[in-house]
Amino acid sequence: MLIGSKKLQVVYYLAPNWFGFYEAVLAYLNRALGIETQLHSCECDSLEDPLLLQDKLDLAFLCGLPLIRYCQVVPNQLQTLVAPVMVSPRYQNRPIYFSDVIVNAASDLKVFADLKGKTFCYNDLGSNSGYNLLRDRLLQYEHPQNFFSKAIQSGAHQHSIDWVMDGLADCAAIDSVVLEQELRDFPELAQHLRVVEVLGPSPMPPMVAAQHLGTSLIHQLQLALLQPDAELKAAMTQVGVQRFAAVELEEYKPLLEMYVR
Fold first, then answer.
1. Is this model's pTM higher than 0.90 or not?
2. Strand 8-12 vs strand 37-41: parallel, antiparallel, or unpaired?
3. Pfam families, per this entry (predicted)?
């Protein structure tokens, strides 16, 4: 495919509070490479998206766990490009993130053990940060299967945050980057939430390209993202991104091993 021959189809599978940032990323690719894109936000499970299954998407922003699960079934379709590296020292200048287990700050829940018998809410069963990491935490410490009295699906990290604040659930596991952005957007949340456990780290959700774009264009995309211009750097600063780092699919395999375990 030649650059500029048609609009590249891009699908966004991540939390909505970063959608604007990735719009800025695509605008930069247009400035840097002359690439036009059409961005879709998909609320369905990425593993069930016809655009992905039929190899009709060109670029995607998605979580590492569904990516590596999909690539085990459909190899050689997608290639990882880059992932963000966050500014905060907790991220160790690496493309990683954590899962922050939150409770209502007004509750008497102080540590993870206090969550026994409580109601846990999660965004979806395929989420690494919202479900997979916490499930692995229970297995590692040999907690009983009925550790929580109830587990309910909220459908989104933002819903889980609201449910914990409103008392509909006692706890939730939230992608640390999503949580930090929510706190930037709504600083008043900080007084209502408390983190009782930090899970991870895990490799950061990457930007991926379809192999049908060809080696040359994929290389150009990756190189451009590793050298952002001033306008993209300003957008990165707004969401706490220090830089982009090149990532390999192999880095996401531990997520699959954890999921299978």
1. yes
2. parallel
3. Phosphonate-bd (PF12974)
- Integer angstrom CA distances of residue 180 from 18, 138, 151: 11, 25, 24
Summarize pLDDT for 1-24 with one digit per residue, the tens.
445 467 999 999 999 999 999 999
Question: 146: Cβ–Cβ under 8 A, 6 or more apart, which residues?
Answer: none
User: Within 34-154, where are the H helices?
Assistant: 50-53, 64-73, 133-140
155: left (phi over 0), alpha (psi -120 to 50) or beta: left
Strands, E, within the chain: which ranges? 8-12, 37-41, 59-61, 78-86, 96-104, 119-122, 150-153, 171-175, 193-203, 207-210, 241-246
Residue 5 confidence (pLDDT): 62
- Could you tell me how many helices (H) and strands (E) the chain has, helices first? 9, 11
Distance CA 186, CA 40 (A): 25
In the chain, the largest separation of any two C-alpha atoms, in whole Å, equals 59
Chain centroid to CA 165: how far?
A: 22
CA separation for the pair 138, 142 (Å, rounded): 6
Residue segments in the chain with a per-residue pLDDT below the cut of 70 = 1-5
φ, ψ dihedrals at 160, nearest 5°: -60, -40
Res 240: pLDDT: 97
Listing DSSP states for 217-239 in one string gives: HHHHHHHHHTS--HHHHHHHHHT
Of the candidates 128, 53, 48, 58, the residue with the CA atom closest to the CA atom of residue 96 = 128
Q: What is the pLDDT of residue 1?
A: 40
What does the alpha-carbon distance between residue 20 and residue 110 come to, in Å, rounded to a whole number? 35
Residue 186 CB neighbours (<10 A): 13
Cβ proximity of 32 and 92 under 8 Å: no
